Each structure stands twice: as C-alpha cells, then as structure tokens.
Amino acid sequence: MRIKQVLSLAVIAAILLVTLPPQGSAQALGVSAVRFGATCSDFSLMVAITGTNDDGGGFDRFRYQILDGNGKKLYQEDAVRQVGVTIGSQVINMSYDNDGVDGPPTANPIRLQIIDLDANGNPTALLKDETFNASCLPPAAAPVTITENFRPAPFLKAFFVGETQLFRAPGRDPMDLRIVPGKEHFAFYRSPDSQWIAIDVSGEQLMWVPVSVVSVDIGRLGVSPRRIDGSDPATAAALPQPTIAPSTGFPLLGQPFGTALVTTRLRLRSEPLLRAPLITTIPRNETVIVYARNTAGTFIRVQYRDLVGWVSTCCVSLIDTRLDLLPRLE
C-alpha cells in the first residue's frame, strides 16, 4: 500500500489505531494538544481537524477509531473535511455503542487513533495515537500517553436559582449530592424535551439537573451528540460559501455545501424519485458529500465515493449544513 502525501490534518485531540506506520513527527502532521478520557461505558474527546489533502470533491477523508488494550474495537467513525476548513469537535461521555453494540472494554489502555484515508476509504497513515487508563480496569503495564483526566472546554454558564439533587441521567438515578442557589457550573447538553441540562461538576461524568432550577440560555445547548465530528458548538466552523454557477444559480460540480451521515442502509438513485434507477446502496454510518436538494426537500443530491446521485432525506443526518440552506435542483 503506497502511503500518500499525508493529508496533514491539523489535529487537537486523542485517538487510536491498528498497524499503520506513523507519518513523520507530530509537528509534520500539524498535531498539537490532545484531550481524551475513557471509562468502561463511554469516552470524552476534544479535537480540531483541518482538511489539507484533496481525496475527491475538495474533501479530505479520515477516521476516528477507539480500541481497548486487547485490540477490540470500541468505536469507529469515518468523516470528511473540506480542504482548508478547520472544524472542532468535543464529545463528553459519548457511548462506545453509538456506532453499534461492541460491548465494554476488556483491558487497558484505551487507545484513540486518527487515521488518514484515501479516496476509496482505505487507511493510509496513522495521524495520531494516544492511550489512556480507564479507572474501571487495572492499569496497563506499559506507560500511557495521557495521564490527566479529561476536562471539557468551558462552554455555557448555568446559574443556579434553586436547590436540586444531581442526577446521573435526565430524571433518573439521583445522587446524594445537591447544588444550592448561587452556584455556577458550565452546561454542555440538554435533554431532548429541554427539561434537563448536563453540567460539569469536575468528575468523570456530567451530571443532570432540571432546567427549572437554573438560569441558562438553553437555546444554545444541543442534545448529546451521536457522532464525534463537528460536535462542538463552541469551536465548530461553518463551511465556506460555495461557488455558484451564474447561469443556473446552482453549485458547480466539485463545490459541495456540506456533509451528511447515512443513518440506515440507503439507496442512491439517479433521480430524486423513489422509483428512479438504483445506482448503489450506501451502508449505515457512511458519510456523503451534499450538493443540493429537490424542490420538495424530500431528496438531496450527494456524492458517495466516486458515485453521484440522489438519496431520500428520511435516512440522513446533515452534519454541517441545513436542508433549507441547500440550493434547489431538479
């Protein structure tokens, strides 16, 4: 396998890998600070990545991977980054099973890797490799690269106006700990019904409290993310505005408007119609490049690897754009 010129993703974070050789020094790869932590059920990560190598359509492909000390896969996520764009991500207490049920780790160290991919999604180089001892398991015999517990970047202050217990989950698993009025803590997530928020109390896990006892701009909080990439509202960057074809008002080929996650097996079709000819089937958890939508907003035009076609909006999650921002195309 020929290792391509490293896409030199600028990485600020933590991650694992398998047998790929490192591509030079951290400085050569543009790798700076790392924040990573793990337990027996979830992990926390802060990372910022800049796309530098064009793997097709102006996007750089890469992979997040987390393994345990026995090499068991705990989590894997493929992503793309527009060349020249930096997007930050921060996940706190994200379940290993967000990509499918893999089960808990069996041994330390928990290993985090960022892997460079080629245009076909094949691994070409290890960009970052970090290890951490989860406190729920005996420590590894060999030294780990990260010894400090993960501390999230401060985001949004919540001021307590009432007293409350702390909960391990929204409305469930109360603890024998309370917060009194006048205290301030940083908030990171809200529950889907917006009745609870997750706050940092300097432990391994975020704690949940009812919105009724805090003063906070809950509209700035999102629900707990299901993916790493683009998950940090404090540092995530918007994609540059694409070039528009003057004659049609639609984006030129190679000028995407964003990316989307395929949430279930999905048919790529030649036209935005349910009975249009089938091009291929896209597996769950693949990332596609988004160019446009149809007038009804029921289909989006995407690129999957070297194939371009239409997919139903029923089974995708737009990552760094919104449906109403996409140009209409029939």
From TrEMBL:
Q: Which domain of life is it from?
A: Bacteria
Q: What is this protein called?
A: SH3b domain-containing protein
Q: Which UniProt keywords apply?
A: Signal
Lineage, please? Bacteria, Bacillati, Chloroflexota, Candidatus Thermofontia, Candidatus Thermofonsia Clade 1
Say which species the protein is native to: Candidatus Thermofonsia Clade 1 bacterium
Q: Which residues form a coiled coil?
A: none
- Check the UniProt entry and state the signal peptide residues, or none: 1-26
Q: Where is the SH3b domain?
A: 265-313
Give the matching Pfam families: SH3_3
InterPro entries in the record: SH3-like_bac-type
